[in-house]
């Protein structure tokens, strides 16, 4: 056989990976935008429709501004399919080349991305500062090309990945639907759910992670009909998950998933491993191949797929304007769950690491570096600013992770309100009621849009924590929704319950 080797330069891999990561930081895949736009058009829940409007408007702004869709610019996951006739011309390993691409992308001075990876997950959790290392999966396949799938996976949706070993006779569909119903909204729906069935524990997880990068094609599948059990399951899950009524951002509505992917592999006679991996609205991935002729050429998407939505007009109708600088407990007690507020004035920021430090200081009987009394705290870790920006994209992080600190913080500080994303757990809601401290949400996945309402930013404490430091933001008309009011009413409990009922009784 006349076998001709393809030589791919290591430098082309580095450049292609760096450019791919920049590209996906600001361009959503057009198929996701088409499906989300269709979901937006048909959505009947005003709260969910409003959230989708913000996600779509944010996506368009990010594409034109070439700035990240989401403040969580993700953990880089790469699937490399290496043709067996390819030789990589480099003294470095493939992982090293990919990591160099990651480093360049995340430190790009034109569009710096947030460094979100910590080393020593068991101990120091020190940020690596350049988002390396990537998680790299390599397959050797026949052929003379090198194909990469490059994805940037947000932590909120990754945290909701689940795995089980079912009894071989048990229903995959029931387990998936029951599990999705327990995930809450920290995974930022509307998105996708991938299900890997079979193989071994790690094979099921890997298959699910990879299939998330396949084109979204549920409408085609629905119109042509299923061709086998895998496609039958996809349709069943798509319908059953949407019937849960979770909706955009867990606010209750018609669309929770725009697609469901199912992938299978032979397994042991005694086993039925099932992996479930959600993909958030910041659905970022791209596929390209290198054939030795140079780095990948990535063409910008056709922006006519992006709807032009006037979010301001939608938001301003019926919203309550709030001055954070003169806030009182009498005022915050009037806010009702579901109400839209436009916040102006000064707020503090603090997320996981800052909360841990504050809790440690309280434990040790030491004073906090910032007085939280009468203040509002926003759970956020922004992207670094560039050019004339005050701050980079700065959307909310999942509040549930702060629940373990909530009672302690409210008890010790006299904080007036919290802003984050997704539901609060029962203990946090009890603390909210006890301390009369409401909780609001901003839209996860609308980070660039939200950053435009931030008019000044400075670090007040824990500077060494980088994006996790305590900042003070001055905001103007920052849109939020009251998610838990001082009486413990929760939109994440009531919204999905109402829409589940409405869908079931149609
Ligand atoms: O780290 C973040 O900013 C957010 C994270 O993606 C989350 O969804 O909680």
UniProtKB/TrEMBL annotation:
Residues 15-288 form the Fe-S hydro-lyase tartrate dehydratase alpha-type catalytic domain. Residues 292-494 form the Fe-S hydro-lyase tartrate dehydratase beta-type catalytic domain. One of its GO terms (biological process) is generation of precursor metabolites and energy. This is Fumarate hydratase class I. InterPro entries: Fe-S_hydro-lyase_TtdA-typ_cat, Fe-S_hydro-lyase_TtdB-typ_cat, Fe-S_hydroAse_TtdB_cat_sf, Fe_dep_fumarate_hydratase. Its EC number is 4.2.1.2. GO terms for molecular function: 4 iron, 4 sulfur cluster binding; fumarate hydratase activity; metal ion binding.
